[in-house]
Amino acid sequence: MIKETYRIEGMHCAACAAAVERILKKQPQVESVEVNLIMNQAVIVANEELDLEAANQALQKAEFAILPLAEYVTVNLTIKGMHCASCANACEKILKGQNGVKEASVNLLTNQASVTYDKRKVKLGELLHALQKGGYEGSVILDQQQKVEEKPSFYERWHIPIALVLAFVLLYIGMSHMLPIALPLPQIIHYETHPLNFALIQFVLATLIILIGNAFFIRGSKALLHGAPNMDSLVCIGTGSAYLYSLYALVQIMQGNLMYVHHLYFESAGVVVALVMLGKHLEARSKRKTFDAIRSLMKLRPSTATLYKEGEEITVSLEEVAIGDQIVVKAGDQIAMDGTIIEGSSSVDESMLSGESMPVDKEIGDAVVGGTLNLSGRLLVSVSANMDNSVLTKMIRMVENAQGKKAPIAKVADQVASVFVPAVMVIAVLAGIFWYVMEQDFTFSLTVFVSVMVIACPCALGLATPTAIMVGTGKAAQNGIFLKSGEALERFAHIDTMIFDKTGTLTIGKPVVSDFIGDDAPQAFAYMAAAEAGSNHPLSKAIVDHAQKIDAPKYTASEVVSMHGLGVQARIEGKEIVVGNAKFLKEKGYAIKEEQEAYHKLLKKGNTLVFAGYDGHLLGVCAIRDELKADSAVTMKKLRSLGIDVVMLTGDNEIAAKAIGEEAGITHVIAQVLPDQKGDVIASFQKNGKKVAMVGDGINDAYALTLADVGIAIGSGSDVAVESADVVLVKDEMKDVVVAYELANAVIRNIKQNLFWAFFYNSLGIPIAAGLLYFFGGPLLSPVFAGAAMAFSSISVVSNALRLRRFQAKW
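Below the sequence we write its predicted structure tokens.
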């Protein structure tokens, strides 16, 4: 059951409240309703999420309205103290358990959490306090760049080397007499001649190491006390048990029971802590490499800009530059902000944006992007976007969001991690008891107990998914491909059908008039251009440009009405002008003979036909053609070789559409589809069990991009399309669709490899640590080797993910 409070508008008396209650109870999801007239609120208990739109429509008939009372905000937190998958899972449970939290996603790799909560029900401070009670420290991320560039402190740089040196000395002393050939030891600390000194020196070294690595014990004990044991708890209990038993043995030696000199496990406690610290350090170093994409994007943003005002050049901080300001960009400088060139020309290195090394020539009127490099001439740029809305900021935000959001496959690791640590603790206790019963030797059972606790770290499970997603999305960003989330990336890897819009996607998007059939072309184009002047549609622009090219007379149209997907009608000098497709003009009473041979020939060449009628007379028809992009055909061929069904979707006439489709190598062409029907086409494929990706660039593609399993927007397209999509291709090249698809598959393969090895490692390691080999006559695993193996498992998973940095699409 879902209980939610809503705001009700329009109530004035008890009868109003009763009417609202009666209407809401008729909604299929609603179980009960309590309306509070004084507060203008309704508390609704429903068996599933309330269909707010349907409820509102029902209430509006009675002059009421229902609105969500919740005021949701999303905040990103940094969480300190997480060291394994169970830590991340515990933090997620803590956050989701707070009243008012709608969604919480914790990423172990970035040590971040994204939390969406109702600020009317819970405060940010309460969320941070809840984390603190659970043994973690949360704080709001204010400066992502500071986080990415964070440098280790003096203590962080030196505590590992010191611990390792102490651990080496401790291991040498503690294990010297246990090797086939005994290692030399000074007599003053030899176990035979001075057993007490032998025990005391180990006690001092182990204690120093444990003090250096005290964080494991603090975090582990806190997590244990709060009922959410994690990897630190395993290390804490395992090494703590070995250390405490060794202390007991030390006391016995001091009392003269010298036989306890063989029951010292200080080296297990100290060396394991040092090895776990080393493993965490190496893991952190590897993890930092996954931030390369964000780090490199951050470095592109200059800290200052040169403002041009009243003939003077003034250096100001980037935050002071506003939209409409003019900035100077000299040769060799980075362009500080997005804008339009109003003076000068130059070559600009846009590799940060597109991944292409070839510079792009820019002149007056061309757009430039902040962070790109001006290579030659001096430019004067009019700023068109502030820092928060710049292309570079959007790119950084997309990469951050993709790296911070979980893919569905990560739920497998989360589910395992939630029960893994408690299960391991039970296994360790049972194994210890079993071997104590079998061997009647407490030290032997302690060794087994410690080994199981130490080897079973679930870090590899927790790192398996986020590392691969982080490296994969970073690699994509370097190639001008932006994957907005891990979920989209996973869906993309399972796509079997790709539907492409035609104009601006498969084609260049700059159609030109190629032919005209009519009596008076200049007059016809004069009327058509007047009607189409206010439209941004590519076909409209082609007509207006052609009218200017042939110096057609100029008219002003009035009462302009655009008919979506059909055409436009207006009035010129009091008479009606109609411009559009054959269907539209037929509806307006014009006689159109589409089967006419001349029209048919134009259509077979891939032209789009635009008809024009004025004052009841047909002016003629113009043929408009848009050339295919250079890489469209080869991209379609590659996609088919990968087993993907390729479809072209267009509003064009079927004959023209098939001509373009044939040129592109697409046999499945769906033509004469209105913009609002594109979503229906997507849905029909999905109903047949297809996993559909939609590739488009225009505003009219936005709904289809949202409805598709994966929406892919061409970066040069409309902002609406880019916002609606899951994947953005900055370079406006069709081949990047293949690169993105193959990269998505590579990432998912990498995740599956990581999960396999993480599961396999723990499935193999725990039984060995529990004494399975020893039971059949083999060796018993030492806690020292268990600690080393545990560290290696995490490092191997991160290293495997880093292989994605070498990804290359196969052409």
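Confidence is low (pLDDT under 50) at residues 143-150.
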